[in-house]
Design a protein that fits this description.
mainly beta, 6-stranded antiparallel sheet, 3-stranded antiparallel sheet, 7% helix
Amino acid sequence: MTFKILDSKQKAEAYFEDGAPKLIRAGEKEICLVRKGNEYFAFDNACPHMGAMLHQGNTNHFHEIVCPLHTYRFNMKSGEESNKRCRSMKTYYVHANEAGLFIDC
């Protein structure tokens, strides 16, 4: 299912600060969404290790989200934890165009 998050690419760029995780809702799901430059990454907000809220974490220059609880690092595109210490997080496809910002869940 595809959800429209914002009405335009320009609104998305203004709303999502570069590298700053934000919590969004798509239907029943809580999703963490991050903009890095012109790319958008979306994944389950709950860390697969212990359930910490990833939108409260940070991103790094390796395109990873760093969990605020135990500092596990997950690749925002593939979902894999950098040291393979736990299962991968669920990622979602995000696309932006002049009609808006969309996420497929």
